[in-house]
């Protein structure tokens, strides 16, 4: 999922350099959404990992 964030970030940077504001803006927004989804999924998996570890002890 972070690969998608990097992909859209690169597209946004290239589009921004070339002056395509609409494409750059859309790519940045998509990258932000995917990044926050990835962060939330990471936090959920970390919490479940800690909870699972505590029940085994």
TrEMBL record:
The chain crosses the membrane at residues 5-24, 30-51. It holds the Pfam family DUF1328. Keywords: Cell membrane, Membrane, Transmembrane, Transmembrane helix. The keyword Transmembrane applies. One of its GO terms (cellular component) is plasma membrane. The keyword GTP-binding does not apply. It comes from the Bacteria. Belongs to the UPF0391 family. This is UPF0391 membrane protein FXB38_27875.
């Amino acid at each position: 999922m972070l690969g998608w964030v990097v992909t859209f970030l690169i597209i946004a940077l290239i589009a921004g350099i070339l002056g395509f504001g609409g494409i750059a803006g859309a790519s940045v927004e998509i990258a932000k959404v995917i990044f926050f989804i990835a962060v939330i999924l990471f936090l959920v998996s970390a919490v479940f990992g800690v909870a699972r570890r505590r029940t085994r002890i």
